[in-house]
Specification:
By secondary structure, the protein is of the alpha+beta class. The protein has a seven-stranded antiparallel sheet, sandwiched between helices. It contains six helices and seven strands. Helices cover 39% and strands 26% of the residues. Strand 5 and strand 6 form a beta hairpin. It has two domains: 146 residues, Roll (PH-domain like), CATH 2.30.29; 31 residues.
Length: 193
């Protein structure tokens, strides 16, 4: 699965959400597809309304940021939206995901995705599709965690790791990344996690 068309087909066949139209769904997935790295494997995709805020929260009517295409790979959760003018694209590394939860009503479902940096709600108008997404997303996260736990001996510190640590330290000192993000990446580079 490397193209927006293939992602749309997977989403449709596996009942993992729907957008207003097929062409816009493909465009949303295309935003993400062009950002895939060569060695990334797409595990699952879904589509839904991003940053959903219910009328109980807004005090009036339901609000959201429109439909997004979400792509889960063996490394990260990527999501994108094609707009009339421009596009939006975001990434959450799988190791930064804290929790995925589901809240359902009679017909619809809200998926809450919580990571180190952000927390957002994806609204899906069909409850069973939201349940399918959460099941597949949790399966992907469990597989990722298992692969991390089964990795071999700690990676040796190489000159490139040292250089990367120095660059990350500068980013932390400049306030571009948080101290927590620096510590997490440092542990990863040193093979401590």
């Amino acid at each position: 699965m490397r193209t927006g068309q293939e992602m749309y087909q997977f989403c449709k066949e596996n009942k993992l959400g729907s957008s207003i139209s097929k062409s816009w769904t493909i465009k949303h997935f295309d935003v993400v597809a062009k950002n895939l790295s060569v060695d990334e494997e797409v595990i699952m995709v879904f589509v839904g309304l991003h940053n959903h805020r219910s009328k109980e929260v807004t005090g009036g009517k339901d609000e959201n940021d429109g439909f997004y295409g979400y792509v889960v790979t063996n490394k990260r959760l990527m999501y994108g939206q094609k707009k009339l003018f421009g596009e939006a694209y975001h990434v959450v590394m799988l190791e930064h995901l804290n929790d995925v939860s589901l809240k359902t009503g009679i017909l619809a479902g809200e998926i809450t995705i919580d990571s180190i940096k952000e927390k957002f709600v994806v609204y899906m108008s069909v409850k069973t599709e939201a349940q399918n997404v959460v099941q597949k997303l949790n399966d992907a996260l469990l597989a990722f965690k298992a692969s991390q736990n089964n990795s071999s001996a700690p990676a040796p510190t190489t000159p490139s790791s040292v250089d990367e640590l120095r660059a990350l330290k500068k980013l932390a000192d400049d306030g571009i990344i948080t101290a927590e993000e620096f510590d997490a990446k440092k542990k990863q580079l040193l093979g401590l996690i």
